[in-house]
Amino acid sequence: MYRSPRYEAWLKEAGWELAIQRPARITGQVSIVIAAGRPDRRRRDLDNIATKACLDLLVAHRVIEDDSLVASITSCWSADVAPGRLRVEVEPAQTPMWSSVSPTQHAALTSNNGGSFWR
Predict the structure, then answer these.
(1) 93 falls in which pLDDT band (50, 70, 90)?
(2) Does the residue 74 lie in any domain?
């Protein structure tokens, strides 16, 4: 996969900041919460800022094994986070929600008539 020089520079700089914090390694499925500080007043897509690059960084520095093991991810803009910065919390995932739902309940939840869930 192609990564621009700017992206590679960010990964390196962010990697140093992450290494200083000495985060624990978490194996298996994880849940991630990301709070982002708005860098400026321009319109921004939160998912572009808070997901892929952050997950790449966590994998590259072995905080998580693989981004395919992310069971849930929540992101938000936060006034408590400095502009252009992220606060990331990673923890072992709890039992996946769907594992406790019967096939009938799952069908009802994911049907077009069953509410706001989409397939």
Answers:
(1) very high
(2) yes
Residue 100 lies in a domain: no
C-alpha closest to that of 70 among 29, 13, 24, 10? 29
39 HSE (CA, 13 A, CB side): 11
Position of tokens 């049907």? 111
- pLDDT for 119 equals 42
Q: Please give the residue range of the domain that contains residue 40.
A: 5-94
Beta bridge partners of 92: 30
20-52: per-residue pLDDT in tens? 999 999 999 999 999 999 988 899 899 888 888
Q: Domain holding 59: CATH number?
A: 3.30.1330.70
- Round to whole Å and give the CA distance between 36 and 75: 8
Run of H or E including 107: helix 103-110
